[in-house]
Design a protein that fits this description.
The structure is a homotetramer. In chain A, about 30% of the residues lie in helices and about 20% in strands. With about 350 residues, the first copy, chain A, is of the alpha/beta class. The first copy, chain A, has two domains: about 160 residues, NAD(P)-binding Rossmann-like Domain (Rossmann fold); about 180 residues, Dihydrodipicolinate Reductase, domain 2. The first copy, chain A, has a seven-stranded mixed sheet with strand order 8-9-7-10-13-12-11. A six-stranded parallel sheet of chain A has the order 3-2-1-4-5-6, sandwiched between helices. In chain A, a hairpin with a 2-residue loop joins strand 12 and strand 13. In chain A, helix 7 packs parallel to helix 9. Chain A is globular, with a radius of gyration of 19 Å. The two termini of chain A are about 20 Å apart. About 5% of the residues of chain A have low confidence. Chains in contact: A-B, A-C, A-D, B-C, B-D, C-D. Chains A and B meet through strand 7, strand 8, strand 9, strand 10 and strand 12 of A and strand 7, strand 8, strand 9, strand 10 and strand 12 of B.
């Protein structure tokens, strides 16, 4: 039995995480924190949890958490997260961090994109990126895992096998992603008010979204190590390709959850869809949560699951991959539980099927 | 006063067309046809029209229609449409055809994409494509106008000015379009049943959608005539560029109406978003229904209107245009009324603002 | 040509009102006000208005408005509205007030339900309630009209003819209403954030909603004057029934717009659905915006229109009426334009069909 | 380990059932049937099941099913279901029937409402109604359980405790229910096409819905036995109240799943909401899936769960109860698994929390 605490319990990823962990036979949720001043019961914050979890939100006190928990999931925003994760790591806890704080391996890049200095720069290079399909072995032994961004998960899972096999160019990739509104979080904003975004799909932040460097960094690592072994596939110490460039266009889609990513890349030689499908299928043959198929996916195929569905087409000499995930599950809390299972030696699929 | 008949009155484009025409002070709707055997009142087919239009659906009889109407809007499917339009044109009526039958100027291309021989091939080369922003002068004097496809409208309006100015390459364009479900029509299909497509965005028919050749053909005409005059801009007789190639990826989006098209193209030289915005704004300066802005659009900005909103970005050396239309209005029935107004000498915006 | 100003231009009813008035051939919109400190252009506040109206929001200055406008539509919240309407009325302008300030005819009742003293109590008894179907003659000559609440419109239009004819009891009415989310306004609230209310229907404020006394008051007037003449039907001076009692249950429904009201009442004698349908149809025979039918309505039948659709059933000795309106049109801005047309002598349906 | 077969595998309730059973540690799904002629793999019919269940749909052959399965869940339509259930029961299998075939205890009533003679009338009186909260003891020992209708579940769970306690009258109950579109099934119908029912709430079949007699029958049983013991609460052999009468109004709501039922009943004496809440809470104190609260529920609070949330208000002398369930879970497949768990001696909540 592992005792876990969740930092930042009032948002949608925390809610999803709690629901998953309530199904986990080896987990006891011992604490939920919030930066709110009052200490509401979790069922007041998330009515769907009434009768299912009897905890109130409390301020995040590292000392107290370290006494009570073995593992912490941080659903805090960037910067706020590293601040407290640092002190929990120093006290020996294991941490799965949902924020972007430990995803980039370079403090300068972090400062550029997140407009703040990193508070824990020394750890950056040693933290595995929490995509088990690519970094499983590093995750198993890590004290801290950087849970991936939702968009990067959908993009990287579709492109990595083809890049890794040298079948597509690492530059000139157009990544067109469509996300459900829960991806924007639970903060009050006009743009996510129901009558604003219902019945409307809109583009936002094209070229400027913070998931861009994250996608490029992970794809660069992969492009540099096409011959990496199949298990524990990528070695973060190897030199990365330097010229990965993506155009990333996120879109807000009128649905609660789900990300569909249509990515356009350039093949390095003549290829067929059948051939690429076979490469993808072989890459993910033993993966419990990636499904490669001929059929073009929709987000409903994976809704409320930890699956990522992928299909590929070749059109006029271009490779078009389509991938679907649930942004709250494989794009956040499901991936976090998958990482947790690896870090604590549980079966990787526990609570996820 | 112009007497109009509508062929194929039971679908969504016909409903939208009727609503627009009911606001047109110079139009009298005299007949609605349907291939159904019974002759239901239009209010049984479209309850929202109760008390607004007192007509029953009737079989399409060219003789009778020619007696009663000056203009026919055909909302029939391809092949069925040309069959009857042909005989109406021979009787002297003016026709706005919503089907794809007269959009491609080449019978072989039609046969390839629509899997049937064209029944009226001789007219193909002389029919203007009903985008007033590009072919206004030809439309004014035409007896028959090919009303554009919804996806092509959204793609072409965003790309044409840049292609025409020689600022982007005519090849290697990725056109990623997201359409509301009304675009799939009112036929009973599992894929458009509410619980199938609600809360889900899905890709379909990537590389194989019939709007692909239509987009390529119109863009080719435009690419060949970069120096065309601003009014009556394009001359269909001029040789077209031969190497326009697009990758077209349509997506089904959980909303009633709207198309958002994000298109990725390659600039021919170093450009900035500000420069391209200026080119777009200049191109559409006198257009009543195209709005160019810095702000990235959403489909709700244009819902139930005849507007097309366009914005442009330059990201990592790529041009990204985003355009939004209402697929049932600017993408179908609004464009048809705009064409009708031009063909009959009414103010182009009548019933559309 | 009538010059109009709109107070409180940033909300959804103002947006709908502007769209309607832009179609009105006899209206010029001269001013839009807002309590915001900056003075944004209306297209920044409502992107769908780009290119359609070139005005910026300004602070509401009665003096200046009186100079420039003949009529003011106030979309301000209660209390704030009467405060400024009062001074505009004193300056001779005509006013259509969207707030609840002038709907109740008794300051005490207002104070009870709105938790504030009324600032203009003397006018209360003389202001007609802006339902032309019931109070047309009073509206024609009024300087100030109290535009009805959205829920009351849907409930009263269905019940008034049956009450007026003495066919149902004035007590023991259960009014179960389902509203789209735009009815909750554009203020930032967690309950109307997309991921909170999408894919969910919820009950709220049962028994405590402020539209309850408004429904009861209007129904009481009607119950007391069953023999009123058909035109200018109700005389506010006649003694009202005192014992009207409704149970009003509002529900938040996952859609942008629309109200469906299912009301349960008790017949005063044996009745049939056919008989009641006939009574309703006769009552509304000459009304341009009320449609009585056998078919049970849905809100989509009336979306973006000024229509109210009504059907009735008799089940196990109970009368069940179902009525559908668009809360932003017949439930707010469409009714306001209808009232405006009456007040200024324009055709009542101008800009509304 | 229990071997189960599912009859009628292509619909939404079957899909939900499969997902639940895949989480059940003591269940092996051995067969899925369909009346389709081809034998598609289940992943072709339900893409979300790809990689999770490797079975193809087969014709329903009682002999073969009896050899392979211990329990059958029938998701077939009425009449078709009893036809095959009968022969499976004769072969000794246990059956949970989702159809209405065994819910009414009287063949004449069945024939009246379902317009067909019952094929297995002798079993009718002995089949427990599968609401464990009311009939748990009978379910434990049954060979066949009639899984409740979705609407009746939501109505009965809210009203039964108050009726049973003699606090509300058994007549004059208005039951106003709002259901998500999945409740209409997966058959192709115009009314459930996305563009027809999206953004629209509509009433249908008021007074004529087949769930009406089911609600009345179960409420009548309960009204007759107010002093029944708390466990195995109701004894089907006792004489039922004869004068239960409900007005039942179903509404189609634009969401995938969920039912919200607002029911209006008449108290037998002066009551308060607090008192009624206490009665409800006491009644369901030990129930794992019913949550009584002060807060008015929404369907999202229970989405994808087996919970029923209930709140109560007293308004102007009327009792208003509001209950929320997921129509596919507590209203169908979750209840079926709950019944299955009871019939086979598993913990009642297995696979449901």
């Amino acid at each position: 039995m592992t005792r876990v605490a969740i930092l930042g319990g009032s948002g949608y990823t925390a809610l999803e995480l709690i629901k998953l962990l309530l199904r986990h036979p080896e987990v006891e949720i011992v604490a939920l924190t919030s930066r709110q001043e009052d200490r509401p019961h979790i069922a007041e914050v998330h009515p769907s949890l009434a009768g299912r979890l009897d905890l109130s939100l409390e301020p995040a006190d590292p000392e107290s958490l370290a006494d009570r928990a073995d593992c912490v999931f941080s659903c805090l925003p960037h910067a706020a997260s590293a601040e407290i994760c640092k002190s929990l790591l120093d006290r020996g806890l294991k941490v799965v961090d949902f924020s972007a704080d430990y995803r980039l391996d370079c403090p300068e890049m972090f400062a550029t994109w997140y407009a703040t200095e990193h508070v824990d720069p020394d750890r950056l290079t040693e933290v595995p990126y929490g995509l088990p399909e690519l970094f499983r072995e590093q995750i198993r032994t890590a004290q801290l895992v950087a849970n991936p961004g939702c968009y990067p998960t959908s993009a990287v899972l579709a492109l990595a096998p083809l890049l890794s096999a040298g079948l597509i160019e690492p530059t000139d990739m157009m990544i067109d992603s469509k996300s459900g509104v829960s991806g924007a979080g639970r903060a009050l904003r006009l743009s996510t008010l129901y009558p604003e975004c219902n019945e409307s799909i809109s583009a936002y932040n094209i070229g400027g979204h913070r998931h861009t460097p994250e996608i490029e960094l992970i794809l660069a690592k992969i492009a540099g190590i096409a011959d990496a072994p199949a298990a524990g596939r990528f070695d973060a110490q190897r030199p990365a390709a330097t010229d990965v460039e993506v155009v990333f266009s996120p879109h807000l889609t009128p649905m609660d959850r789900g990300i569909l990513t249509t990515a356009y890349s350039r093949p390095t030689r003549d290829v067929t869809a059948a051939e690429l499908t076979e490469v993808l299928a072989a890459f993910y043959r033993d993966e419990p949560f990636v499904r490669v198929a001929d059929r073009l996916p929709g987000t409903k195929d994976v809704a409320t699951t930890n699956f990522c569905d992928i299909a590929v087409r070749v059109v006029r000499g271009r490779v078009v991959t389509v991938s679907a995930i649930d942004n709250l599950v494989k794009g956040a809390s499901g991936a976090a539980v998958q990482n947790f299972n690896l870090m604590f030696g549980y079966d990787e699929t526990t609570a996820l099927l």
